[in-house]
Structure formats: structure tokens, C-alpha cells
Design brief:
64% helix, 2 domains, mainly alpha, Cyclin A, domain 1
Length: 155
Amino acid sequence: MSLIVSYSFLLIILILLQILDMEEIILKKLEYQITIPSAHAFLVRYLKAAHADKKIVQLSCFILDGTLQSYNMLHYLPSQLAAAAVFIARRTVGRNAWSPTLLKYAQYREEDVKPVARAVLAEKSDSPTELKAVNKKYTSSRYGSVATIPVSSDF
């Protein structure tokens, strides 16, 4: 009986070592890049695709940061929130809201982004007055004072 238990124990150890070896191979292949896709990661990608200037970057960050304070925004995907932030920022500065390049990289059509953008703006206008940190941050000149810019909502 003792020999069977020892053999079983050794077999389990070998299997665990094989699993660890395979995990190491996978991690090395991924170059240890294993993060959860955040809205910010999508935002950076979309801003590059949009050839965004500093004002659009700052405005997009302001809009996206505002979504972090809202429980209601949790049912949207991080990629949707990032796309909505870029959409709103581009509209606000007078650029075309969406472009073929954004369509290619975001895989969202303008019609897909509009409802999310409307929800983001609705949540922003309904946010409690106690939640002032994001507005305070983006009112400073360091962040382009973008919190003082009236955001476009005519879409």
C-alpha cells in the first residue's frame, strides 16, 4: 500500500512540475505581458489611431476618468468606454467624431459608440456634487484645463 501511495505522490509532483514548466513557457512567449485590459489601455490605442493632439488626449482622459466614479458605467466594456471618450472629445474640439482608422482599430462603428457616449454624458451630468476630484484635477493648467471646456452633446 505504501508503495502505491508513494508512486501516486510522485506522479502528482511530476504533473505539477509539467504544469509549472508549461506556465513558464507561456509567460515567456507573452513576454510577461499579462494584464487585464483596462479602459485606459484601449484609450491609448484609440488615441494613437485617431492621431490625437494634446487637447483631445487630455479631454479623452478627463471623460474616461469620470466614468470610473460611476457604478452605472460598469456594464459597459472598457473598450466601449474608451471609444466613447474619444468620440466625445473629437466632437468637442470640432473634428469628425469617428474615422475609418478608428473603425479599423476599435472595431466599433459610430452608431455603436453613440449610445455609450450618450450614457457617459448623462452620467456625467447626473454625478453627485461631492465627486469633485476629477473635475478639480482637470481644471488645472497641468491637464490643459479641459474640465472648463463645454463638452459636445449634440449627437
